[in-house]
Design goal:
The complex is a heterodimer of chains A (110) and B (117).
Chain A: E1 9-12, E2 18-23, E3 35-39, E4 46-49, E5 63-68, E6 71-76, E7 85-93, E8 98-101, E9 105-109
Parallel strand pairs in A: 1-9
Antiparallel strand pairs in A: 2-6, 3-4, 3-7, 5-6, 7-8, 7-9
Chain B: E1 3-7, E2 10-12, E3 18-25, E4 34-39, E5 45-51, E6 58-60, E7 68-73, E8 78-83, E9 92-98, E10 106-107, E11 111-115
Parallel strand pairs in B: 2-11
Antiparallel strand pairs in B: 1-3, 3-8, 4-5, 4-9, 5-6, 7-8, 9-10, 9-11
Amino acid sequence: QSVLTQPPSASGTPRQRVTISCSGSSSNIGRKTVNWYQQVPGTAPKLLIHTSNQRPSGVPDRFSGSKSGTSASLAISGLQSEDEADYYCAAWDDSLNRYVFGTGTKVTVL
Amino acid sequence: EVQLVESGGGLVQPGGSLRLSCTGSGFTFRTYWMNWVRQAPGKGLEWVANINQGGSDQAFLDSVKGRFTMSRDNAKSSLYLQMNSLRVEDTAVYYCVRDLSGGGCYWGQGVLVTVSS
């Protein structure tokens, strides 16, 4: 079972703001940075946010990440139809000695 | 252009073995940690294993310890996952991933492993 908890779904209309939460613990998010990945159905995941709040080149600035304590969040501002995808948070867990993923959140553009 | 190409997947009976390969190009393979991540049909992502640049430091998911081994050949820019004693629950798409937890993260297209009788 996943160590990081995300809401199963989120939705919004075009141009709305959507936020996805990721809840962890002191052994993972509480002491490690968080990455976020986007997976369009039928394709491989891709990196969306690294080091909790950094965007790789090529990722639109409508995506932003933040972290506070043992939780992290991903915000999508100005939602677009191509943002329909599954989103996963992840971090290394010092207690389990393995990389752990969130449960995943399916974003739907209404 | 960065590329990671996995191969070696397929259908195998429970208790059987498979060897996955991943070949990288477009970057200096020997300078990166490498990982295997899997995704069972209709399920989320699950980290399987990682290996450091020289191959001396490795970590595995508990459920695959003792059954899976990993190696790399930096001269061939290749990563390998030897999977033995396969179980039905190992059925998944297996992704080769560069620098999974860092800013240089890049995913291969994945290879399907099906364990079934």
